[in-house]
Design a protein that fits this description.
Pathway: Amino-acid degradation; L-valine degradation. It comes from Alterirhizorhabdus solaris. This protein is of the alpha+beta class and 383 residues long. The chain folds into three domains: 110 residues, Butyryl-Coa Dehydrogenase, subunit A, domain 1 (Orthogonal Bundle); 109 residues, Butyryl-CoA Dehydrogenase, subunit A, domain 2, CATH 2.40.110.10; 151 residues, Up-down Bundle (Butyryl-CoA Dehydrogenase, subunit A, domain 3). The chain contains eleven helices and nine strands. The strands form three sheets. The chain has a four-stranded antiparallel beta sheet, with no helix packed on it. Strands 1-4-5 form a three-stranded mixed beta sheet. Strands 8-9 form a two-stranded antiparallel ribbon. The structure holds coenzyme a persulfide.
Length: 383
């Protein structure tokens, strides 16, 4: 996208965040739901199609541009991002990255329009960090696969009309090599949803179990058409998803710093605004350093990703750093707000709960550490 058009888009999103999303945050928290009117507006703005290439009806943003827009959106409650998050990110990108031309033509235009909502179904009750050990089975019968298994904590499952589902097509292979990624329409007979999960935060973002009971799916729905490559597709999707989550972290950093600065300048103790006190200034400065460092890492990683370089290590380093940084910033924001920071009406307590998930989903901090270290060791061994 040329820079003028992109600036126009970013300004439109910024206005939408200020005028529509931030004022609706308390309602989302109270109702544990994003109002349908806002979902419709997001659809009309084309936000579901950020990452779908233009030739398939999307906006075709680069990773750096997508991150810029997601950063704007997540200045408001992260639950708004969740509405579009899986369709823009992990739910659709398997098709964008590895799908056949027919799969792209069938699904991407509807995903871009927000007519199809995508969810990414990888995690299971017994397979979280060890994604390669998943047990959901897909057994070939003629030209269809029979799918059985349970997926857990699936974001947007209650809204989803399509799942990118990882299942084991080769029962003889226990690890990642026997896994395939399927496109599964959510209205296929045999699919049911568990009760909505009751979460620590991110109220309004919906997750639940998805149960597959003798679900019959055409073999042609394997992403890319070749069985056994689904784990690699999932890993490529997650590399990209980790840049997206860093952008989420950065948007939340921005808002927490804005709130902390405003409060520190208004709140008076000992006869002065608390912003005059050097111990408070120390916390504000540390927030800024975390924000600037995340931003620099984000810009560098997204640029290299867009240039087509192999950046798995960098994606993990970025996601690890960004999600830990926003955790530190949320903690300081509560501290700067003092007693008010613990009270719901000041909103920082909600951010404090909401950011906690960033260090867990799309790969825990510990998984990112192991990905980084393994890549370092591999490089050192082959040097
Ligand atoms: N891109 C492309 N291919 C990749 C890849 C990547 N980023 N990462 C791994 N692969 C490939 C490997 O090259 C290997 O291929 P070969 O068998 O041809 O050599 C294969 O995938 C298996 O890789 P590996 O041996 O590293 O897999 P492990 O089972 O050891 O697991 C981790 C790797 C732990 C990194 C993976 O399971 C993971 O990311 N877990 C976290 C999952 C997660 O983020 N869950 C969140 C839920 S989704 S919101």
């Amino acid at each position: 996208m040329d820079s003028e058009t992109f600036d126009l888009l970013r300004n439109t999103v910024r206005r939408f965040v200020e005028e529509r999303l931030i004022p609706a945050e308390d309602q989302v928290e109270q109702d544990d739901a994003v109002p349908e009117a806002i979902v419709s507006e997001m659809r009309e703005m084309g936000l579901f199609g950020l990452s779908v290439p233009e030739e398939y009806g999307g906006l075709g943003l680069s990773m750096a541009e997508e991150a810029g827009i997601i950063r704007e959106i997540t200045r408001a409650s992260v639950s708004f991002r969740s509405v579009i998050g899986t369709t823009v990110g992990i739910g659709s990108q398997g098709i964008v990255i590895d799908g056949t031309e027919a799969q792209k033509r069938e699904w991407l235009p509807r995903l871009a329009a927000g007519e199809v909502i995508a969810s990414f179904a990888l995690t299971e009750p017994e397979a979280g960090s060890d994604a390669g050990s998943l047990r959901t089975t897909a057994v070939l019968e003629g030209d269809r696969y029979r799918i059985n298994g349970t997926k857990r904590y699936i974001t947007n499952a209650p809204r989803a009309t399509m799942f990118t589902l990882m299942a084991r097509t080769d029962q003889g292979v226990k690890g990642s090599g026997g896994i395939s990624a399927f496109i599964v329409p959510a209205d296929t007979p045999g699919i049911s949803l568990g009760a909505p999960d009751r979460k620590m935060g991110q109220r309004g973002a919906k997750t639940c179990d998805v149960i597959f009971d003798d679900v019959m799916i055409p073999a042609e729905n394997i992403i890319g058409g070749t069985p056994g490559l689904g784990f690699k597709t999932a890993m490529k999707v997650l590399d990209r998803g980790r840049i997206h989550i860093a952008a989420v972290s950065l948007g939340m950093c921005d808002r927490l710093i804005e709130m902390s600065l405003r409060y520190a300048m208004e709140r008076r103790q000992f006869g002065s605004p608390i912003a005059d006190f050097q111990l408070v200034q120390g916390m504000l400065a540390d927030c800024k350093v975390d924000q600037l460092t995340t931003e620099a890492l984000m810009n560098a990683t997204a640029a290299r990703f867009d240039a087509g370089e192999k950046v798995s290590l960098d994606c993990s380093a970025l996601k690890y750093y960004a999600s830990e940084a926003v955790g530190r910033i949320a903690d300081r924001a509560v501290q700067i707000h003092g007693g008010a920071g613990y009270m719901a009406e000041y909103k920082v307590e909600r951010f404090y709960r909401d950011v906690r998930l960033l260090r867990i989903y799309e790969g825990t901090s510990q998984i990112q550490q192991t990905i980084i270290a393994k890549a370092m060791l591999r490089a050192a061994a082959s040097a």
